[in-house]
Amino acid sequence: MTASDLASLADLLAGPVEPAARGLLGCRLTGHGVTVRITEVEAYAGTAGDPASHAHRGRTPRNAVMFGPAGHAYVYFTYGMHWCVNVVTGPDGEASAVLLRAGEVVDGLDLARSRRPAVRRDVDLARGPARLCAALGIDRSVYGADLLGDGPVRLRPPVASVPPAAVATGPRVGVTGAHDVPWRFWLAGDPTVSAYRRHVPRARRSPRGTV
Fold first, then answer.
1. Helix-strand-coil split of the chain, %, nearest 5
2. In 3D, which of 98, 97, 105, 139 has the Cα closest to residue 121?
């Protein structure tokens, strides 16, 4: 990797979220001794008419890092048990980010296995956003980190470019709004890509005495 390659990645992330998401496929993310090749991502456009985004209603202490600068980590806790990591994109002040949904462990395999001892297949070690964070040892301490710097969690360009024909696209997984926006991108046919599940709202119970 050259300084020019890293600068090109920084320029990509500073632009619109959709091409940034596509461009993250094949990139390498290293966390605490484990490296994954990113195989699946989702784009979220912040306040720009995307009700599925955490920043849709504006800035809060939780989502503040999404408003820039690009290339930093937005980490959040979900379901009371899992961490998920996003790469902030776009110009300063315009909240957008790309959720890293899945990856292939390409270095530090034994360490990734030790962090996820119940996993039987290596393709499942980072298959899904929470699993990816667990394999890389990512938690709240990474919130706001510069992923293009030299910290313990680092994002680097792909070893080889990903041809457009290798990228598939479809609806995002499990979102409560904008269900059918095709902003999930993945490497077609890769076994580490997570399963698609559309969000299904829970049925409300009928009041007593009614049917």
1. 20, 25, 50
2. 105
Q: Quick one: which H or E segment has residue 115? A: helix 109-115
Nearest to residue 48, comparing CAs of 100, 94, 99? 94
Is 105 within 8 Å of 63 (Cβ atoms)? no
Amino acid in the structure at residue 99: L
Where does 21-72 show beta strands of DSSP type E? 28-31, 34-44
Distance from the first to the final alpha carbon of the chain? 65
Distance CA 197, CA 191 (A): 16
Beta strands in the chain (DSSP E): 28-31, 34-44, 73-78, 82-88, 97-107, 153-156, 167-170, 184-187
Q: What is the reported pTM?
A: 0.90
Peptide bond into 69 cis (omega under 30): yes
CB neighbours (10 Å) of residue 153? 20
Q: What is the pLDDT of residues 173-200, one digit of tens each?
A: 877 767 778 899 999 999 999 877 665 5
